[in-house]
Amino acid sequence: MTQDWPRPSDEEVRAYCEQGFREDRTLSRLLREQAAARPDATALVSPSGRLTYAALDSRVDRLARGLAGLPVRAGERVLVRLPNREEYVLALFALLRVGAVPVPVLPSLGPAEVESLARTSGACALVVADRYGRSDPRAEAVRIAGRLPGVRHVLVAGGPGDSPARPLDALYAPEAGPLEEAASPEDLALLLLSGGTTGTPKLIPRTHADYGYNALASARACGVGPDTVYLAVLPAAHNFTMVSPGLVGVLASGGTVVLCPDPSPTTAFGLVEREGATLTSLVPALLPSWLDEARRTRADLSSLRVLQVGGSRLDEGTARRIGPELGCRLQQVFGMAEGLNNYTPLDAPEDLVCTTQGRPLSPADEVLVVDGDGAPVPPGAPGELLTRGPYTLRGYYRARELDALCFTPDGFYRTGDLVTRSADGDLVVVGRVKDQVNRAGEKIAAVEVEEHLLALPGVRAAAVVGAPDPHLGERSVAFVVAEGPAPTREEVRAAMLRRGAAPHKVPDEVRGVPGLPLTGVGKVDKGSLREREGL
To answer: Domain named AMP-dependent synthetase/ligase: which ranges (predicted)?
Structure first.
């Protein structure tokens, strides 16, 4: 039987284990051990209330029994599309406990993207919220299930309304003893979603052993322990919020996770004061509103020790404002769901923290910075970042045709990030090699948006590029060649949303042009296009 993705060799796994670079426990076991050691400590705070470690572990057991009774079987994939609410954490760990494979999906994704992910992963169930903004996730999930015979269950956190979906609350079994673990450390734990340049979803296979190591090593690098109170501001399904160190790293270390229902500084500052939050994580696009609010808030932010910023490059000017204006230490984070995490050390000088994006997490992380021919570049020179290590994937899930493009023959992942590396190993992100826009930490495949543009009446050619933006990191600019007047941004937005695209993928700017420059082999020359258009 062909494996669904390439794995490290048995010899590599054994060497990583012997050196302590993989976990010998499942993610569910990490939670179970903390519940045994700290049963009465607060594990989770959400709009629904507070759960101790003992209560959280018991509720996970009860939900896991209900899921097993549906049945959801070990190894089956389940899409989890929930915002920052208690049910996300419960569903995540309950699925892990029965040996199923959660596929965390950002709630902001459009229905077309969710359906594509369900198809690619072979999902047997969808777990959605009863509402999200103005959308109706229940109705969307039911329609998707109707088109995909493999989706047997639609489960709703909240009321199912008049849909045939089943309420998640109805699955909780009566109180019972601990459920036996159904997975082993080297089994597939989660499928994470990657941005990419192919226009199709790429699923990242992460095992219990590598993701658990990622979480706990990150927790150590970030000073996380039982006294940590982590405020989850970004979507819980985001890898940054999950494991850098995120909710998995904090719960595995005995700390408290506080779920913030929205990223507004007013909401977040109130929770910092009420819960005594010590650590939180943001993308650069959120910082201006946080810094503005900090000047006028009456909330007590003195408990906040560390603010992590990642997802896209943080400019030095904003970085230097964080300490004086928010009263906490900045930690820059540069990572990817594919694996490699980098952190600025908590004891690093301010100049280093404000101007670099960190150092590799693990002593076993192998990092190369190479030129276009694959040759190493000297320290300080820009090049593409390649990486290999104990928690970095060796290939995508059910996408062997992409592996030759995304990995070197000896297993290094081509990140597509253009970086410089100092002699001491500090990385600075200077751009992207791959054809995608890194907008506020979300990777937008240019070809995917171009396909939407080309579907518009009268559009003959389209190209999407990223342009520097002080708040978003990059904004997306679409160049359109049309038979008549070019569509406006409002027209593009309406058309893309009708086609099921996520709102953040709508171009920030749409320009009509008479033609697009081409390379010698007939491809759009985006470098020349940027230069011609002054980007």
So the answer is: 31-397
